[in-house]
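Why Phage integrase family protein? Reviewers of the renewal asked for a concrete example.
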Amino acid sequence: MTGPALVPIAPPAPVTFDWLRAIVLAGVASPYSKRNYSRAFDELGKFLDSIEEPLSRASLVAYRAKLLERNLSASTINVQLSAIRQLAAEARRNGILDSETAASITDFPNVRQQGTQTGNWLSRDQAKELLAVPDQEKLIGKRDHALLALLLGCGLRRQELAVLQFEDIVEREGRAVIVDLVGTGRRVRTVAVPFWVKQSIDRWTAAADIQDGPLLRPVSKSGKPGKVALGDWSVWSVVERCAKEIGIANFGTHDLRRTCAKLCRKSGGDLEQIKFLLGHSSIQTTERYLGSEQEIAVAVNDTWSF
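Here is what the prediction returned.
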């Protein structure tokens, strides 16, 4: 069996688009971002072929207009623009684009986000209803319950959950924690595991006889656990299916991460501690993530009077 193709260190002559693409993708650490960048390059290539124009600021303006026509979110479009800016910078370094053209692309602005996008999340009652969906009489139900519990109770990203190992959950200061979890931007954090989440994990690992290796694994139709990790798209599929069972469409793994943050905040959780839990780089990121909610029952202007 042959291994993955290696990215050449020295550029070929002439430098090809595929080589530039490979160089840019090699510098992207997150598998999720790498997949998004790769998709961006595919779509850009098809668009440039369709208009028979090279990459320039003018063709990028036309491409952004095409993306806006598809009603894509600002964040989705901006990920594509970020990938294209990096591609242009690499093209300049290798003499494919002149400095002026490259600069006109690398300083191309993002699409402005209108308002604060807070996304979807569940109420406490909805979260309990979601956790009740998996049939814990079956092995796959025990696994799915543990999967949902980890996302909901620990605020993990699906990629973080997919690579989680049995050995990553240890005891510190009298409680279960996930140690040295590497998140976005290679930030390392420790995540406390609530008691009810640990109970769910223990039910799954005991039933599946998992004592090391990947924590979450596929379960065969005959009800036997596999040896490999479940995979991040399978994690997403479980969440989507269970959400549909309680009547919620278009609900994904990141919405459970947001739910965790919202429920922590509503229960009086300190904003800085929520930042540590989620692995955000700053309090401002966490504030934008949580959004703002207007309190009507106890309104801010009820706190004083003449």
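The beta strands are 169-172, 175-182, 188-192. This is the kind of structural detail the renewal will allow us to pursue systematically.
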